[in-house]
Amino acid sequence: MSVGVTISAPLTPTSDTGTVPSAFSPVDYVVFVLLLVLSLAIGLYHACRGWGQHTIGQLLMADRKMGCIPVALSLLATFQSAVAILGVPSEIYRFGTQYWFLGCSYFLGLLIPAHIFIPTFYRLHLTSAYEYLELRFNKTVRVCGTVTFIFQMVIYMGVVLYAPSLALNAVTGFDLWLSVLTLGIVCSVYTALGGLKAVIWTDVFQALVMFLGQLAVIIVGSAKVGGLGHVWDLASQDGRISGIELDPDPFVRHTFWTLAFGGVFMMLSLYGVNQAQVQRYLSSRTEKAAILSCYAVFPCQQVTLCMGCLIGLVMFAYYKENPRNIQHQAAPDQLVLYFVMDLLKDLPGLPGLFVACLFSGSLSTISSAFNSLATVTMEDLVRPWFPQFSDVRAIKLSRILAFGYGLLCLGMAYISSQMGPVLQAAISIFGMVGGPLLGLFSLGMFFPCANPPGAIVGLLAGLAMAFWIGIGSIVTSMRSGMLPSPWNGSSTSLPSNLTTITMTTLMPSTTLSRRNAGPDPEPSDHLPSAAKTPCPPAHVLAEATSLQKL
What we know:
disordered N terminus; mainly alpha; 20 helices; globular
């Protein structure tokens, strides 16, 4: 049975005191539609402003005149996807606060790009990060890097577009394909017409929406359970507040070492060499502004991580104080949506604000992907072979490419709905590819003796090793019974510790350790832990909690 058919009927939770609403109020719809309209309006404004006088530099690089604050917020929004908004609170609710120590990796993970990668790229006056590979090695290495990046982003974009809509449909009854099509078309239009400047300014707006949506949940939730102090006390009593886990055992779910050090490599792959981020650095008006924008991301990332963790703790305390029974078991990525609909059901407009927050995460990630894919295709695959392209033709082709990638993303979203147990591999691919690409750039920058054949062999060997470990762990988990068969209508969930950090650092999936998880919530008192029960098909978001975009 296909995924779309299986989940077409929304899951309807029941409780002792009432029923979680399965539909929005008119006010909620107005708030959600405002997000789409304003995002589209910002994009069209920058598209229409100076129409006919745009240059290819303005379209792809915002004329290299952006300030550090909008660039920083765009950097934050690009990888603060709906996956993270749904996944981080679920991770904290189910396993405790050990994941919070990921924030320790942000300092080095942003300091190194700020003082190594950004100056290198900026002083070379690049448009595509992969131009560096040709300057350092040769054109073949450049093309290999570009093709690898395109493969990574195209596969992941379908999941980013489809999976949050699937979770929303299951909880609220919001039409699945209407939301997918709306997101894809709106995003494609303002990205293709407005270019990078439109993407950056819509990212700024969407980052503010994400902040307000999560803040509303924290304020209302903590107020209903007696304040954040009481939330912390309840979590402490149940063992959800974790200390620093220094166990070097790689089979432990999360430790300080895997989070703090593995997280550095995750941050480097995202903020050091990923084209979606590099393109924003290079759009800054000066090198100093580019470096400052990277520094400004650090406090923003810490605030974002804290908000996600606090939502998880508030959710735990809320269901500890207000026991609920769920008629159908909730998948990990549905837990936050069930909680929000239950918590905010008597406050019209706030459920709509949180859904707008969720879709802002998707819009910012997808628009950045479309723009970066169009840029690398134009600069790395078209212009080197057709250098005689005029600005007018280059602008037209770039817009066609951006819109074409939007349509491709919609197609990948449909494929994602049919993938069943293969869907988790699509999510894992982002991490599997990110590590070898980081290695390729690091080889060029830190090893003067490296040559083009060595770079290509290294990239291919890294990809082969990453796919062997990543796909192999998934297949092994399926064979061992960790993943239920799709034919019985159950879910395809990731192995419990297959997070982005382990994927990026090529750590294999391992069995779940209880050392930092705390006791499971009782089914009679809390939302059910999806680790103990099968999930609806293709709900795989929560185990990719730190995959911020892309």
